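ok so i was messing around last nite and threw this chain in just to see what happens. nothing serious, just curious
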Amino acid sequence: MKITFIGGGNMAQAIISGLLASKNTYDLEVIEPNNQTAELIRNNLKIHVQADSKDISSDIFILATKPKDIEPACKDLNDKKSLYISIAAGISTKKLSRYLKGAEKIVRVMPNLCAFQAKSMNAIYASRLIRASCEKEVDNIFESIGLNLWMQEESHINLATAISGSGPAYIFLFINELINSAIKIGIPKAEAKILIQQTLEGSVSLANKNIDNLNELIKNVSSKGGTTEAAINSLHEDQFGKIIFSAISKAANRAWELDQ
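result:
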């Protein structure tokens, strides 16, 4: 099966790496006009790269450009029999079909940066008719980089973008602020990183096993009148939940705006 990536950025490279490591065999190529990125892919991934998509045919095209570049990226793609998979945030299947001159076999996928560790959360949407014809192929591709979740409504893809698509950045920001705060109270940076890395790993492991009892986990850490209670009370006073909700809402709204 031939898969052509339109765009060779970080996410495309992560998916390609997953496919190369999977048990399935694919004929892979990338359309990437940036010479530096193209050379990086050739050297690191050892697959064919060319600058434009004129006269290209493929079983599957993965549209891996930025949302603002989707329309020009589609202009030379004319094969309506191909399956088109878009990982561009916010661009609807209706708009993609218009850009692709009426093509109907379109799937939207929202992976995340954890694909580089084969830990991506992949939110996927296709109409029921399209899903029935391509579900196995799409699952095989994206299971190579993580976990797949098929969404029942296309609108849910934009909501998932704000949660799992953008989510790693929220986590990285929180970790960075924990490190900075540890340094500010007097812990050396090297020690702070070890303390926080192990705390993060252990906490995620516990949360995964007790995802329906997170409030109970918080109580288990928080002794009455103790240090954790003081910190949690401070977070509540500063409306931590409201801050998180506001950020996620703005991310979701931006996903809608990208389709306008």
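not much to say yet. The CA atoms of residues 170 and 244 lie 9 Å apart.
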